[in-house]
Design a protein that fits this description.
By secondary structure, the protein is α/β, with parallel strands linked by helices. It has a single domain, classed as Purple Acid Phosphatase, chain A, domain 2. Helix content is 36%, strand content 25%. The radius of gyration is 19 Å and the shape is globular. The chain starts with a strand and ends with a helix.
C-alpha cells in the first residue's frame, strides 16, 4: 500500500552518473502517493553525465515523474549547479510541472523557501573549475567505494561510505557545512521565512537555527548517492525518510533486462505521448 504524503522533497539524485542510486530511488517513488513533489536540484547531472550509466532505473524514474504529473501531482523542478543547463528553461510550465530557480510556498500558514543552495556556496562563486574538478574526484571516490563495498558484501560485512566518513571527520568539511547552514538560515530569517529547504551539500538534516534576529527551521533533503534520503511533510510535520532503515531495502530487485539507449529513449517517448497527448 502506498504512503500518502502532502509534500516530498528530493535532491541530488545525480542521474546519469556512476554513483546514482537510481534503483533505490525508483523503489521509493513507487511506494509513495504525494500531492506535491519538489525536485530540489542536481536531479540529472549534466556535468558528469554518461549514457553508459543511464540504465533502465534512470528511465523508470523519469517515467514515474511523468506519471505523477499526468495524475495531477504538482512537480516543481528547482535547478541546481550540476543541472544548471536547465536554467535556460526557467519559468517553463506545463500541466502542473514547472522549472524554477527557487520556490516559495505557504504550508499550513508557514512560509517556506526552497532552493538548491549552490548560490550560497563560496567555491561555486569564485572557483567553478575547482568545483568541477571536485565533482570528478567525488565520482572517483564513489567508484572506488563501490568496489570496496562489493568485497565487504561478499564476506558478509557492513558497507562503508568513504565520503560520509571524510565529511564527519575532517574539520574543514564540518566547518564548511556549518557555515553553509548558518548562511542560508540567516537569509531565511531576515526574509521572514519559517522553513528554509535546500540540498547541495549531501547532508540530510532537520534542525532549528537561532541567531540574534530570530529562528528558523533548516531542512536539507540529503542525496541519492550515499544517504538515500528525502524530506516528507505530512500532518503538519517534517520528517527525513531514510531508505537504508526502511522496508524498501529488503524488497527484491527486478531482473535486469538489457536495452540499449535508443530503446530506452523510444520507450520514454511513448510514455510521454500516452500521458500528454
Amino acid at each position: 500500500m502506498k504512503r500518502k504524503l502532502e509534500i516530498v522533497v528530493i535532491s541530488d539524485t545525480h542521474l546519469g552518473t556512476i554513483g546514482s542510486r537510481a534503483e533505490e530511488l525508483s523503489k521509493y517513488l513507487k511506494s509513495i502517493e504525494p500531492k506535491k513533489i519538489i525536485l530540489n536540484g542536481d536531479i540529472i547531472d549534466i556535468w558528469q553525465f554518461s549514457k553508459r550509466y543511464w540504465n533502465k532505473y534512470h528511465t523508470k524514474i523519469i517515467r514515474q515523474l511523468l506519471k505523477f504529473i499526468s495524475n495531477g501531482v504538482e512537480v516543481h523542478y528547482v535547478v541546481g549547479n550540476h543541472d544548471e543547463s536547465f536554467r535556460r528553461f526557467l519559468n517553463f510550465e506545463l500541466d502542473g510541472f514547472e522549472i524554477v530557480n527557487k520556490l516559495k510556498l505557504d504550508i499550513d500558514g508557514n512560509k517556506a523557501w526552497f532552493f538548491h543552495g549552490d548560490v550560497f556556496d563560496v567555491t561555486m562563486q569564485h572557483s567553478r573549475w575547482i568545483t568541477r574538478l571536485g565533482g570528478y574526484s567525488y565520482d572517483a571516490l564513489i567508484f572506488i567505494n563501490s568496489i570496496v563495498n562489493r568485497v565487504l558484501s561478499f564476506f558478509g560485512q557492513e558497507k562503508i561510505s568513504f565520503s560520509k566518513t571524510l565529511k564527519n571527520k575532517v574539520k574543514a568539511a564540518v566547518s564548511y557545512i556549518n557555515k553553509f547552514e548558518d548562511t542560508v538560515a540567516d537569509i531565511g530569517i531576515r526574509n521572514g521565512y519559517n522553513y528554509v529547504v535546500c540540498g547541495h551539500i549531501h547532508q540530510p538534516c532537520i534542525k532549528t537555527i537561532k541567531n540574534s534576529k530570530g529562528s528558523i527551521q533548516y531542512l536539507n533533503s540529503g542525496d541519492w548517492i550515499e544517504n538515500l534520503t528525502a524530506l516528507e511533510y505530512n500532518n503538519k510535520k517534517w520528517e527525513i525518510f531514510q531508505y537504508e532503515s526502511s522496508k524498501l531495502k529488503n524488497q527484491e530487485s527486478e531482473p535486469e533486462v538489457y536495452k540499449d539507449s535508443k530503446a530506452l529513449f523510444l520507450e520514454l517517448m511513448e510514455d510521454f505521448k500516452l500521458d500528454f497527448i
